[in-house]
Every structure is written in C-alpha cells, then in structure tokens.
Amino acid sequence: MVTYEQLGEMYDAEVVDQDGHKVGGMDQVYLDNGTGNPAWVSIRAGWFGGRKILCPVSNATIQGGRIQVPYPLAMIKDAPDIPCDGHLTEDEEEQLYDYYSVDQGPAPSA
C-alpha cells in the first residue's frame, strides 16, 4: 500500500507495469478523501506524454524512482478515457473501479 509519506518519492517517477515494462511518467497523484493515502495516479503516456491515463496505486510498490503497478501494460493503455483535470466524479470513479476490478472505497480527489 502506498502511503502519504511516500508522496515525495512518487513525483517524477516512471510508472511500470507488473512485468517492469514502462507505461509512462507519473503526472498527478489523487488522494483518498478518507485516508489521505494515494489512491490513483495519472500517467503521461503516448507521444510526448499526450495522453493521460488513470491507474490505481493501492497495491503499487515504489522503489528506485519507479512506481510498479500490478496490472499488465495493455490493460493500463486500454483504460477508460477519464479527464485528468481535478476531482473525479462518482461516475468516472465507478468506471475505473469496474475496469481495474478494485473494491470501491472513499472517493479520491486531486
């Protein structure tokens, strides 16, 4: 579980999939409203980081400037297109929870 104390390590980190393949650079952290712990990250992916993808980090590990998430690269790249422009709506959250098969918790916010 990624904690609030690890936030500093997350900035400018590279996000990699479950097998260590590069997904992209970490863009923004979304915190859980209830716990204050990191719940989601937006990832800059594609040419020049043109697309931003949301991925849960509740089961991620942080080490050596990398955030390793427990999902395959193809799944992350095919995630729903959710605008990474602030607070997630309940509908957006539900889409992401369903897609990644994550148990729903308190709503994260930017």
TrEMBL record:
Single biological process term from Gene Ontology: photosynthesis, light reaction
InterPro entries named in the record: Bac_photo_RC_H_C (IPR014747), PRC-brl_dom (IPR027275), PRC_barrel-like_sf (IPR011033)
Pfam families in UniProt: PRC
- Please give the GO cellular component terms listed in this UniProt entry: plasma membrane light-harvesting complex
Query: Per its record, how is this protein called by name?
Result: PRC-barrel domain-containing protein
PRC-barrel domain mapped to chain residues: 9-72
Native organism is Serinicoccus hydrothermalis
